[in-house]
Amino acid sequence: MKTKLLTLFFLGIMSISAQTTHNLNWQIGMGTNVDLTIDVGDTVIWTWTDNFAHTVTSLAGSAENFNSGSITGNGMTYSKVFTVEGSNPYECSFHPLSMAGTITVQNSLSINDFQTKGFSISPNPAKSFININLPINVLIDEVKIFNLLGKQVYFSSILEEEMDVTSLPNGLYFISISSEGILKTKKIIKQ
To answer: 39, 61 in Cβ contact below 8 A?
Structure first.
């Protein structure tokens, strides 16, 4: 039974490891260009940053239909996982002239391609050190490494050029990097 549960947990982690969460502030005066291009399976979270009633509502012709309903209050959120490739124009039903945009969903690249999702890891598999290569001008909020059981085994608020992984037992891990509200995760193998 434990083996089946661990296998199920592992498959769940594998399926979410390539997904990214995108955070958008949602308030009057945002404009009509609140646009994002994301991958299939990514999540968008709209966070209310004022105390007025707003909606996040898909428009006619959207690849996916979604509607948050009326939500009021600073700090309230609405999230949507996008699963269909295509264009998703949306607006606040109460403030369409000052709160609107488009979420463009594209097919993601292969999970095995470590160049996807904005950063790369080398070497992978690793024996003692890993290098994390980021696009220029990316500010890192935090770096975390999790084992297959979901236990955090590493944390840093700064990115080192070389991360020492010699103390980790051999196996599969997930490294998550947070940058300006976006969380990106990749698999790494420690040999």
So the answer is: no
Element counts in the chain: helices (H) and strands (E): 1, 16
For 117, the token pair is 């999702």
102-121 b/e with 16+ CB inside 10 Å = b? Answer: bbbbeebeeeeebebbebbb
Task: Write the pLDDT tens digit of every residue in 5-39.
Answer: 444 444 444 444 457 888 888 999 888 888 888 88
Report residue 137: phi and psi, to 5°: 70, 25
Sign of the torsion formed by the C-alpha atoms of 58, 64, 68 and 70: positive
CB-based contacts of 145, cutoff 8 Å, min separation 6: 152, 153, 154, 155, 165, 168, 173, 174, 175, 176, 188
Residues in the chain: 191
Does residue 123 have a cis peptide bond before it, meaning omega lies within 30 degrees of 0?
yes
Nearest to 54 by CA among 90, 104, 103, 102: 90
The C-alpha torsion from 120 through 123 and 125 to 128, rounded to 10°, is -120
pTM: 0.51
Characterise 41 by phi-psi region: left (phi > 0), alpha (psi -120 to 50), beta (else). left
> Distance between CA 155 and CA 102 in Å, rounded?
35
